[in-house]
Amino acid sequence: MNNKARNIFFLFGLIAVVVMLLTFDVSFTQLWKDILHAGYWLVAILSLWVVLYIMNAFTWQIIIRGSGDCPIPFWKILKLTISGFALNYATPAGLMGGEPYKIMELKPYIGTQRATSSVLLFAMMHIFAHFWFWVTSIFVYVVLALMGLLPLDWGMGCVLLFMMVFCGGGIYFFVRGYKKGMVMKLIRFTSHIPLLKKWAKGFSEKQHDNLQKIDQQIAELQSQNKKSFYGSFFLEYVGRMVQSLEIYFMLLLFDAGTGGLLTFVYAFLILSFTSLFANLLFFMPLQLGGREGGFAMSVAQMGMTSDIGMFVSIICRIRELFWTAIGLLLMKIGNDHHSVEK
């Protein structure tokens, strides 16, 4: 990627972060109080995401190798992973920023088609693992409710039913996408949107052959390279479990639960319900409002106080802003041009 394009992505992300900081509806006094309360656990929370990003990078590397050789060094994949997520955090509609950036950075190494398919496959696997993560949480919640550890009334039953239908539909959509590809389907869907209709039809006609090849590469991961498919899925699914430690650390600060396995399960459920609610509001940068509301409702459902929900949401927001800043800074370093374009 040339420096001009990279600077545009960087500037766009920077402006988004500044806007979010200016609209961060928490007083400095409250913010500082929560940081002091977190103490050394804040370091543990920030460090946990080093592990998570490394797992994401390994997932992406497995996917790239599933379609051929991988000439890009792992540190570069990790750097692009962090920067890509930073742009996704900072931009409305999530994938509008990070995915195009990663494709453009990866293109000189493995070519446009493989770069596009690998980035799309990683995004698909990331979302696909989330659906299974949410499904797992439904069964876990029901088990705990039957044990008398969590409430289960008609209202919560309707929420769980909605989650199951939503996740079932999502899993079905992605399974079909993995079998036949989904780029052409998305372009055809876009061609029915009034403001994008003309562009989508023109783009589809001009890039028809390339889009079909990308769909073919997407389908090949599941049909011809099952080891890469299940390996990448395993890493992404386990990554969501590891992410639950972030909530677990914060619950320990409030002595919520027993501090053992049950507290971790509560953390897992809080993360699951919150992430689902926030992702339903994917059009918001940093999922503003959705994340906080999700934490408030999830924590209350676990029988915990609103103070815990507020604290968890603030610390998670601090962590997101920290890693978004790191990701934007990484866009400006390590941009060598020793590519092996194909």
Descriptive account of the structure:
It is a single chain. This protein is mainly alpha-helical and 342 residues long. It has one domain. The protein has 13 helices and no strands. The chain has helices spanning 3-22, 28-38, 40-65, 74-90, 95-146, 154-180, 183-190, 197-206, 208-223, 226-253, 261-279, 290-301, 306-330. The radius of gyration is 21 Å and the shape is globular.
Keywords:
0% strand, globular, 342 residues, mainly alpha, 13 helices
Quick description:
This protein has 342 residues and is mainly alpha-helical.
Main β-sheet description: none
Q: What overall form do the CA principal axes indicate?
A: globular
Order of helices and strands: HHHHHHHHHHHHH
* Beta-strand segment tally: 0
Number of helices: 13
* Relative helix content: over 70%
The averaged pLDDT comes out at 84
| Uncertain runs | none
The domain tally reads: 1
Rg, rounded, reads: 21 Å
Distance between the termini: 15 Å
Strand content: under 5%
Structural class based on helices, strands and sheet pairing: mainly alpha
